[in-house]
Structures are given as structure tokens and as C-alpha cells.
Design brief:
Elements (H helix, E strand, L loop, with lengths): L10 H8 L6 H22 L6 E10 L4 E3 L12 E5 L8 E3 L5 E4 L4 E4 L8 E11 L16 H17 L6 E5 L4 E4 L7 H8 L16
Antiparallel strand pairs: 1-7, 2-6, 3-4, 3-7, 5-6, 8-9
């Protein structure tokens, strides 16, 4: 079946990391599923799509404030970026482009901040943004480890390898007491502090930020 186009790694790269050799047949299918599932878990934890993706006319609610926290980051410095405001308080598909002189973009964090402390009004889906964000990899010629988000792929390997071991209830066992058959499995996901620390460097921070564009 193959992995999803946006998965964080490939099955064979996990196999290489874990010393499993070349995967084929059923083993490859199982590993593909693990890669996809762990990708979903990690992206849910981080709060955004990791692979570079273009978002067109992504709408935002806003409050009186000076910043807008984009849903995805890091933001490309070379791709098209456009910020628009709805021209009325009604749900009409009519927008004005906000000139870039009225805001700054922190590309690394995905935060837009208004220039010169400008503040704007509360809205419901009153602004939209077209931008490209994420890490540029395709799992063919370029891999996540080749980008500034390389630790995310390492975290995926560290999560998937023990899941592979425990799929038959064998190699994932860390300790075992025969008396009452207590089994303690290796910590694999966010109970694993090493994995958590790797991912926390890239996670969307739990802060509230909005923008209301310049009313020219």
C-alpha cells in the first residue's frame, strides 16, 4: 500500500535504524502502517503538518491584538505570502489585500505581527492567509533528516522501532515477573522523555495570538 505522501519517514529508513534489514511483503506492509500511524500521532502532538504544504486562503478568527499565530510553520521565505481582510462584517466573499508594510512575519515561528503596534477589531473568519509552511522533504530525493526538522524523523524512528518489537509481545518487554505476569513495556511515545524533548523543540506553543489588519 505504501506510506502516505506526508509521512515523516519511510519504512526502510526505520528498518535501517532498527537493524532489520530489507523489508518485503507482510513485514513491509506492517511497517508502512506503523509509519503512517506514528506520523499522525506526532503531527497531532506538534499541532501542524510537518511536510511543506501550501495553504490557500486559510481563514482566521481574530481578537483585538497585534499578532496572528498561523496554524502551520515554519513559513517559507520564498513562496507566495498574502494576508487579506474581509471587506465587511457579513460572510461575503469579498477581500482586500493588506500591504506588507503593515506587518512583519516571523518565518520560524509562523507569527505575523503588525507594524508599529497597530491593533484591529474582533472578527469571525475576517482574515485569510495564503502561505507555504513546513519542512521541505519528499521521502524520495530529500528526507526530513536533511532539513532543519531532522530531529522529528529521529523521534519517529525511536517511537516506531519499539512498536515493531512489541507487535508480537516479545522484544518490547523491558521486565517481566512470572508470578502475576506483570509486564512492563519500554516507554515509546511521550512517556519517553528523550522523544518528548526532541519533539518539544518543534511543537506549537500553547499561546493565543491573533491579528486584525490595518484599517486604511
Amino acid at each position: 500500500m505504501g506510506i502516505k505522501t506526508y509521512s515523516l519517514t519511510t519504512s526502510q529508513r526505520v528498518a535501517d535504524f532498527a537493524g532489520l534489514g530489507t523489508l518485503t511483503g507482510t513485514k513491509l506492509t506492517i511497517m508502512d502502517r506503523l509509519v503512517d500511524q506514528v506520523t499522525e500521532v506526532i503531527e497531532k502532538y506538534l499541532g501542524y503538518r510537518v511536510q511543506e504544504t501550501t495553504y490557500t486562503n486559510e481563514e482566521y478568527d481574530t481578537e483585538v491584538a497585534e499578532i496572528l499565530l498561523l496554524k502551520n510553520f515554519p513559513v517559507s521565505t520564498t513562496a507566495t505570502f498574502a494576508l487579506h481582510r474581509r471587506t465587511s462584517a457579513l460572510n461575503e466573499d469579498d477581500w482586500d489585500t493588506i500591504d506588507s508594510q503593515y506587518y512583519h512575519i516571523d518565518h520560524a515561528s509562523g507569527i505575523i505581527q503588525t507594524a508599529n503596534g497597530i491593533q484591529f477589531a474582533h472578527t469571525k473568519k475576517g482574515y485569510r492567509v495564503t502561505y507555504t509552511a513546513g519542512f521541505d522533504f519528499d521521502n524520495s530525493a530529500t528526507f526530513l533528516s536533511d532539513t532543519a526538522g531532522g530531529d522529528i524523523e529521529l523521534a519517529a524512528w525511536m517511537m516506531i522501532a519499539p512498536l515493531w518489537d512489541r507487535r508480537r509481545g516479545g522484544f518490547g518487554i523491558e521486565s517481566e515477573a512470572i508470578g502475576d505476569y506483570r509486564v512492563k513495556y519500554r516507554r515509546t511515545i511521550f512517556e519517553n522523555e528523550e522523544v518528548k524533548n526532541l519533539l518539544d523543540k518543534y511543537a506549537r506553543q500553547d499561546e493565543f495570538g491573533v491579528i486584525t489588519p490595518y484599517q486604511g
